[in-house]
Amino acid sequence: MKKGQKLWTREELILAVNLYCKLPFGRLHRLNPEVIHLAELIGRTPSSVAYKLVNFASLDPSLKARGIKGATNASKLDAEIWNEFFNNWDVLPYESEKLLANFEQTTVEKLNHIPDIELPKEGKMREQVVKVRVNQSFFRSSILASYNNTCCITGIQQPEFLIAGHIKPWSVDEKNRLNPQNGIAINALHDKAFETGLLTITTDYKIKISPLLFKQKKSKSIEEYFLKLENQDIILPSRFLPDVEFLKYHNEVRFKH
Description:
Order of helices and strands: HHHHHHHHEEHEEHHH
Low-confidence stretches: none
Oligomer: single chain
Radius of gyration: 20 Å
Helix content: 40-55%
Strand content: 5-15%
Distance between the termini: 58 Å
Number of helices: 12
Number of strands: 4
């Protein structure tokens, strides 16, 4: 360690992973306003924060699979925090948002723009509702960042049209509800088709259309919006590649053959 440098704390690293998940891969740099803001919050330089984000990139299995190495000197604590986060998607995102709210000297509700009028007044019910809303916001942010705000099916980049869809449904796999590898950025129409099994994504990341839709060949809209997509590659995310096991589940259980 260079003279004058200080060790990163566990809390600082958790906040850095939180930001890593919510930023597009190409924006992990010192000039990004969000990097600058986190640096100010924790009393570090933007360069230091940016370098730590790139350290985490070196630990990201999705990037390793694409041959992207990131920085090569991630610390033992970096790896510990990354693994803790990566293996506890059901816990750490919410905890990291509460920690961030504390550093921001605000509430987790205000940090995530949840109107008080939409929440129960107090007690466990309020906490449960807040947690669900915060988790949904975190999941959406991490998915859209991974896909650079681009629909994986059509390439549409209008945020209002995009949904952070689950591959393995929210109701089926509680532990992986917030796992970015269980998500895809997809437009509302094709999300509905994916959700109902009329469209799936194969384990080699190709689009597959249900035979039920191929029976409607006379429909120009079905031809245009679905049948033409058969066997095309999806637009892959820059990180958090969809997990093959989740895709296999969707192919075998949800897809209408």
